[in-house]
Amino acid sequence: xxxxxxxxxxxxxxxxxxxxxxxxxxxxxxxxxxxxxxxxxxxxxxxxxxxxxxxxxxxxxxxxxxxxxxxxxxxxxxxxxxxxxxxxxxxxxxxxxxxxxxxxxxxxxxxxxxxxxxxxxxxxxxxxxxxxxxxxxxxxxxxxxxxxxxxxxxxxxxxxxxxxxxxxxxxxxxxxxxxxxxxxxxxxxxxxxxxxxxxxxxxxxxxxxxxxxxxxxxxxxxxxxxxxxxxxxxxxxxxxxxxxxxxxxxxxxxxxxxxxxxxxxxxxxxxxxxxxxxxxxxxxxxxxxxxxxxxxxxxxxxxxxxxxxxxxxxxxxxxxxxxxxxxxxxxxxxxxxxxxxxxxxxxxxxxxxxxxxxxxxxxxxxxxxxxxxxxxxxxxxxxxxxxxxxxxxxxxxx
Length: 398
Prior knowledge:
Elements lengths: L3 H9 L1 H13 L8 H10 L6 E4 L6 E6 L2 E11 L26 H16 L6 E9 L7 H7 L9 E8 L7 E3 L2 E4 L1 E10 L3 E2 L9 H19 L6 E10 L5 E2 L2 E10 L2 H21 L3 E7 L5 E3 L1 H15 L4 E3 L11 H4 L4 E7 L25 H18 L3
Helix pairs in contact: 1-10, 2-3, 2-4, 4-10, 6-7, 8-10
């Protein structure tokens, strides 16, 4: 079934895929509660022989397709939530809700997954095994995948799991992936340096937290270059510094906020411990104190080598050898599909959706309020997801 027929079937329903994508795009929802989006998905797939499981802490749902014969179990995932930002694309189906936009492509992920569900339902009689379609909210920092696992919506666990993420600044129609670490763990930190404020003209009577906070920022950059192997990517970024209320007042406190990105559990633990140690040590050296809070983000996204090879083979069958690209290095963004990949072998892939023939490297990337998608690629994504499911049910990782 991994033939031109699968791709043709996807393109025959391209209008449905695009229509669903646009409807979701126009009404973006945030976080773990995306009821309007879920309702659109349920309505689109209402005529299909799917068994639904939903409930718990989120509005996420899993649709199950049982093949004609027993066999392996495979999961395909699409995320549904948007971002809190103002859209500036001027598209006719642009967000109708101020301050919300599908700027990470989750509208396309959901639509492509719905398309994959439809074309696989057409193949139900030829399938041996079960396909789970995971429609997940709360990917943008809300740990939606973890909640759905904890709620028992993915029980029993599948034998393999696959996901597809669009890239608007990547070559039209090319699928990319890599084995091992694909995306980073992402943790947040907040450091509050506590001193003693006073008049800016008499700093000797104070314990000024501002220069101490600045010293901590500089030390964190040295931490990355001097404590971690240069071949093992670690990113520590201070993105906020808040202190003071007037030009002539030394404040009592200065607060730093930022992110830590790592590609291994060992470096993740070391980065967290080092940030705490450095902040507290520098503060103590100046007779101040520092309170540090680390908020755990998503784990490292680790792709199984055999699952990546399966995706590469599916891509070659559907789109030819030029349709695949092996990524030379991980991407330092984060992804909560990592929670699934901690439990079952699988992989996430990227799909280039820049306009065909465009200078894709100059296109606006994800999380841009001017991000654009060439919708003609979306049926390819549905075929790719369906192809991964079919190949795994037929052959496993052989």
